[in-house]
Structures are given as structure tokens and as C-alpha cells.
């Protein structure tokens, strides 16, 4: 016989209280930890996907749309810009890296991006097998694309017009897979990268067929969708966007700034869930407090008996505190397990809608803060339940029982 | 051995003071304290158990003056030297009969030997209930468990508060007999307070309050 055995028997003897306390507390812990981790993972995922892109230049329109389409590859582009004009911009000594990107086609829902070798250095991309595309109609594919579509080196495929799978019109030209990227947990995993020429060739070829007799068409200025830029120093970030926005017919958008703006909107939802979780936390604390407090009142005689057995006030307080702590520890474990299970579920859904693996991020510091907060709130509840013990009049309790 | 000297008690919320006659019992001597309700029988018993503090006077149990002990020392002394029997509630509800005895020894910081515990239950006639929860026992069985809990740690003083009031005549006789046997076996003083006139004949020493 020891303190633990008595504590466990007490918990077993009131299964409903124990169950309710553990249930509500673990739900709130799961929500708090889950939301925290989800928020961190999604933000991290987006920030990670930005790579080293400091600025994106595209056609006038919504800057958020430009960032979403050209950097995160989730929205439609704002329009096209002139390739020579874009190249003119890169002759700025403050610019470290510049990659024009051009797209408008997909293969089974995966976007085909025409760009230059500079694109890879924005994402520190490494090729797992094969080489970078050098000639027109050569493509290097993301790990997710390779895995999902079962594409291998040397395979060929035909692109379809548009950015989604539903696009009907397929182009005739065939792409050839010359390389596969390493898994990066970035947007790169679900892209098909090819040369700028490939995109132009595919469309020129089509247009050539459509407008066989309009020779002039071939000599139109080349266009790209946008231009990704990174700077050598922050000074470039201060001057260049303003110059572009004021002096050209293009717009410059700062991906980090636009994403922070986006998170302000989505943050409201996260905040709402957090508040609900805090409310459940308070309710479950009250449940535990009431449960222990009732235990102290209802079992006053049992506790008084223990005192006649030679147990000190401290010993009895320990027993009651341990009952509460058992519930808390159990709830923390269940809550953590539930949060991981829930996240796994959410990530699976996100994965199928974003077509991308999300790297789960554990924000250790805020995680610890939350756990400490939960423990602190509950320990206060336990302490409040124990206080009446020290005012307990054993003599009165024993004689009232008659 | 137990003695008390000019013992008085003052209720916290009133000015009335209860004064008690001096007690003086030799080793293994027993005493019945009779009195109507409200005369302070239970108060006297709780003073002797160290559950209440007297306004004046001394209580000496086995050469220890318990009125001078610290709260913690008093808890330990009560656990080791005193066993208490109550009218209705006798045991911890979440534990079985055997676990109750083990818990009783655990709080007294004594080791338990299962065979000895079962033997004690056997003497009291409830060995077959050892794995039952206390709410599965009859009143008579509960009172026997109460006795077991009061003597399992071999105390020097057994205090019984109305131990027979809820029992029928058959159980009353049996419980008193067991209680006295156990007191004798432990060479312990037995003090019973009651208004139950049925057990008067069991005692040589009777004190009326």
C-alpha cells in the first residue's frame, strides 16, 4: 500500500468525474497545441516556399495575386510583361539574382514553369538525378510530381493549356524529363521546370498552326509572366520597387510583406480557435476544481479517518493534489496525441489540395509556454481545492457523521 | 495506561466551558462512559484522541503528555498509539477490506503482513469479505472491520464512539465481545462512550457524565 495506490483507487472509484475531467482537459490541450503547431507549420511552409525571392515583378494588378501566382504557384497570374523590359530591370547592380518565369500550361494539374537556371538558386534546389534542362522541351520535375505521376528520366509528356487539370486543349509538342529535384518541402516539389524557350516554342508552334498565314505574328515581342529578384543589400528593396511601380507599366510586390498581410486575415481564424480552446481550458479547470473540491467535501469523513490513522494534513493534501496531477498528466498525453492525430489529418487534406507535403513544425518555445500556462492554471485549481483541507475540523466531521 | 488531569474544553463559538472528571486507568483497564447526548462525551473522546485541544489540563497516554506535542508529532502519535471505532463510517470507501487494513498500517508507517491481516479478519469473522469494497458489507460486518482497523496497528488505547448503537442485540453482544478480546490481546486500554444501556454489564468501570 502506498500513496499512489490510494490515489489510483480514488480515481477509479469515481470514473465519471475522472473521465469528464480528462476528456474536457485533453480536448482543450489538443486544440491549443494543435492550433499552435498548425499555424506555425503553415506560416513556416509559406515562408519557406518564398525561398530567397525578395521582390517579384509582374503585370499590374493585385500584388497579393502576383505573389501567390509567381512565388507560391497557387493563383492565376496577373498577366504578362515584356521580356526585354524585364531583362532591362536586371541590369541593376544591386540585384544579386534574377529569374524570369513564364507559364500558362500544366501537366495533369502540375504547373509547367519556364525559367532560367537562376531559378534554382532562389530555392537552393538540388537535382537528385539527371541534369538541368538546357534545350527546349527538356524538363526537370519536382519530387512530388515524379512520385505522383510515376515519371522517370527519359519519359515524355504533353502539356495542356491552362493551370488546372480540367484544361482540355493539349499541345502537340512533347516534353522530355531530363532531371528530378530532391524533395525540398518547398513549392518546387510540385513544379515542372523547363526553359523559357520551351514555353515560347509550344505556344509559337500552336499559334503558327492557327495563324499559318500571318507571318508577322512570329516577330511579336517575347513575353514572360513575371520576374523574380533578390538583392545584394536591403537598399535595393527600398529603392527598386518604387522605381518599378512609378516608372514602368509593371508592378513590384514584396512577397514577405504580402504574406504577412495574408496571415493577418487567416490569423483571425486561428485566433478564434485559440480563444475557444482557452475557454474550454478554463471550463475543464473548473471541472477539475469542482471534482476535487467535491471530493474534499464528500469525502471529508474519509479524509478525517486518514487523520485518525496518523496521516498529516500534508499527506492528505498530497493525495488530493496527486489525483489532480494524474488527471493533468493523462490529459496532456492524450491531448498531445490528439493534436498530432488531428494535424496529421489536416496535413493530409492540405496535401491533397495543395498537392504538397508540409513539413510539420514544432514551435518549441511557444509550445512550452502553452504547456506551462496549462499547468499553471490547473495547479491553481488544485491548490484552491486543497485550501479547505487545512481548515478542516476533524472532530466536527467525525461527530457529525452520527 | 492513561490519565487525565483537570481537563476542560471551551467551544470555539461560545463562552461555555466543559469540565471533565479526572481519568486514571492502569494498563489494559477498560472504561465505559455513559451519558445522554450533548453532555460532551464525544468531546472528551476527541480530546483523548488529540483531535481537539483542551483549554486546560493534561492527558498522559503511555507516559506521553499529548497536550504538549506539536501537531505533526500528535498526528504520528495518534496513528501509532490510538485506535478509534466509530458508529457508522469505518473505512475508506474506495478501497477493499484488505486494502483498508494495509492503508491503515501505511499511514501509521508500519509494514503489513498479509497473513497476519487475514488472520485478524478471520478472528473477527470477516475473512471471506477481504476483497469486497466497504459498500458491499452489512452493518455488522462493517463494525467488525471498524474493530480490525482500530487494532491492526496494535495500539495502546482504543477509543470507541457509540460502537453498538446501530447494531441489533446479537451483533451488539458479538461486537462488544470482539472489541474487549482485542483490547485484552493488545494489552490496550479500551474507552467506550455510549448511551446504549445494553453494554453496561460488560464493564467493571463505568463513568456517568
Automatic annotation (TrEMBL), chain A:
The chain crosses the membrane at residues 16-38, 272-293, 314-347, 367-390. It is found in: Cell membrane. Residues 276-394 form the ABC3 transporter permease C-terminal domain. Keywords: Cell membrane, Membrane, Transmembrane, Transmembrane helix. Residues 18-197 form the MacB-like periplasmic core domain. This is Permease. It is a multi-pass membrane protein. Its main location: membrane. GO terms for cellular component: plasma membrane.
Automatic annotation (TrEMBL), chain B:
GO terms for molecular function: ATP binding; ATP hydrolysis activity; transmembrane transporter activity. PROSITE patterns: ABC_TRANSPORTER_2 (PS50893). Keywords: ATP-binding, Nucleotide-binding. One of its GO terms (cellular component) is plasma membrane. Coiled coil: none annotated. SUPFAM superfamilies: P-loop containing nucleoside triphosphate hydrolases (SSF52540). Residues 2-209 form the ABC transporter domain. PANTHER family: ATP-BINDING COMPONENT OF ABC TRANSPORTER-RELATED, IMPORT ATP-BINDING PROTEIN. This is ABC transporter ATP-binding protein. It comes from Croceivirga radicis.
Amino acid at each position: 500500500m502506498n500513496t499512489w495506490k490510494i490515489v489510483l483507487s480514488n480515481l477509479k472509484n469515481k470514473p465519471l468525474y475522472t473521465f469528464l475531467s480528462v476528456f474536457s482537459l485533453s480536448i482543450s490541450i489538443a486544440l491549443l497545441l494543435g492550433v499552435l503547431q498548425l499555424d506555425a507549420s503553415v506560416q513556416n511552409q509559406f515562408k519557406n516556399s518564398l525561398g530567397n525571392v525578395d521582390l517579384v515583378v509582374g503585370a499590374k494588378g493585385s500584388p497579393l495575386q502576383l505573389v501567390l501566382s509567381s512565388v507560391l504557384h497557387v493563383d492565376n497570374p496577373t498577366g504578362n510583361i515584356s521580356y526585354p523590359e524585364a531583362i532591362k530591370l536586371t541590369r541593376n547592380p544591386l540585384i544579386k539574382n534574377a529569374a524570369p518565369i513564364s507559364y500558362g500550361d500544366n501537366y495533369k494539374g502540375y504547373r509547367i514553369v519556364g525559367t532560367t537556371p537562376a531559378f534554382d538558386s532562389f530555392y537552393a534546389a538540388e537535382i537528385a538525378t539527371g541534369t538541368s534542362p538546357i534545350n527546349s522541351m527538356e524538363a526537370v520535375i519536382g519530387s512530388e510530381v515524379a512520385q505522383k505521376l510515376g515519371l522517370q528520366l527519359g519519359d515524355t509528356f504533353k502539356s495542356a493549356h491552362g493551370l488546372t487539370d480540367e484544361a482540355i486543349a493539349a499541345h502537340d509538342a512533347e516534353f522530355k524529363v531530363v532531371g528530378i529535384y530532391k524533395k525540398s518541402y518547398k513549392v518546387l516539389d510540385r513544379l515542372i521546370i523547363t526553359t523559357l524557350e520551351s514555353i515560347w516554342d509550344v505556344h509559337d508552334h500552336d499559334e503558327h498552326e492557327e495563324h499559318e498565314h500571318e507571318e508577322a505574328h512570329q516577330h511579336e515581342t517575347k513575353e514572360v509572366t513575371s520576374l523574380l529578384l533578390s538583392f545584394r543589400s536591403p537598399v535595393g528593396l527600398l529603392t527598386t520597387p518604387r522605381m518599378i511601380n512609378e516608372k514602368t507599366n509593371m508592378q513590384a510586390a514584396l512577397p514577405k510583406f504580402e504574406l504577412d498581410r495574408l496571415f493577418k486575415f487567416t490569423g483571425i481564424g486561428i485566433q478564434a480557435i485559440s480563444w475557444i480552446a482557452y475557454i474550454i481550458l478554463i471550463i475543464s479547470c473548473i471541472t477539475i476544481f469542482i471534482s476535487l473540491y467535491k471530493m474534499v467535501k464528500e469525502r471529508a469523513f474519509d479524509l478525517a479517518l486518514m487523520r485518525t490513522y496518523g496521516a498529516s494534513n500534508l499527506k492528505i493534501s498530497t493525495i488530493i493534489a496527486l489525483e489532480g496531477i494524474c488527471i493533468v498528466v493523462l490529459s496532456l498525453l492524450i491531448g498531445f496525441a490528439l493534436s498530432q492525430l488531428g494535424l496529421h489529418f489536416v496535413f493530409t487534406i492540405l496535401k491533397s489540395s495543395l498537392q504538397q507535403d508540409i513539413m510539420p513544425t514544432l514551435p518549441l518555445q511557444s509550445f512550452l509556454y502553452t504547456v506551462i500556462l496549462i499547468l499553471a492554471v490547473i495547479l491553481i485549481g488544485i491548490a484552491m481545492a486543497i485550501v479547505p483541507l487545512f481548515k478542516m475540523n476533524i472532530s466536527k466531521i467525525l461527530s457529525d457523521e452520527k | 495506561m492513561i490519565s487525565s488531569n483537570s481537563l476542560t474544553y471551551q467551544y470555539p463559538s461560545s463562552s461555555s466551558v466543559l469540565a471533565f472528571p479526572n481519568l486514571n486507568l492502569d494498563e489494559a483497564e477498560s472504561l465505559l462512559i455513559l451519558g445522554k447526548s450533548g453532555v460532551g462525551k464525544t468531546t472528551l473522546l476527541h480530546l483523548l484522541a488529540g483531535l481537539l485541544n483542551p483549554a486546560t489540563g493534561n492527558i498522559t497516554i503511555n507516559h506521553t503528555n499529548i497536550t504538549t506535542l506539536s501537531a505533526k508529532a500528535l498526528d504520528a502519535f495518534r496513528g501509532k498509539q490510538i485506535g478509534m471505532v466509530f458508529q457508522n463510517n469505518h473505512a475508506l470507501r474506495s478501497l477493499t477490506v484488505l486494502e483498508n487494513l494495509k492503508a491503515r498500517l501505511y499511514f501509521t508507517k508500519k509494514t503489513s503482513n498479509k497473513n497476519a491481516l487475514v488472520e485478524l479478519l478471520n478472528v473477527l469473522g470477516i475473512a471471506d469479505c477481504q476483497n469486497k469494497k466497504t459498500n458491499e458489507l452489512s452493518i455488522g460486518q462493517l463494525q467488525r472491520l471498524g474493530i480490525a482497523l482500530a487494532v491492526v496497528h496494535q495500539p495502546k488505547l482504543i477509543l470507541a464512539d457509540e460502537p453498538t448503537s446501530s447494531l441489533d442485540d446479537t451483533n451488539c453482544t458479538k461486537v462488544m465481545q470482539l472489541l474487549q478480546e482485542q483490547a485484552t490481546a493488545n494489552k490496550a486500554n479500551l474507552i467506550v462512550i455510549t448511551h446504549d444501556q445494553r453494554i453496561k454489564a460488560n464493564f467493571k468501570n463505568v463513568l456517568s457524565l
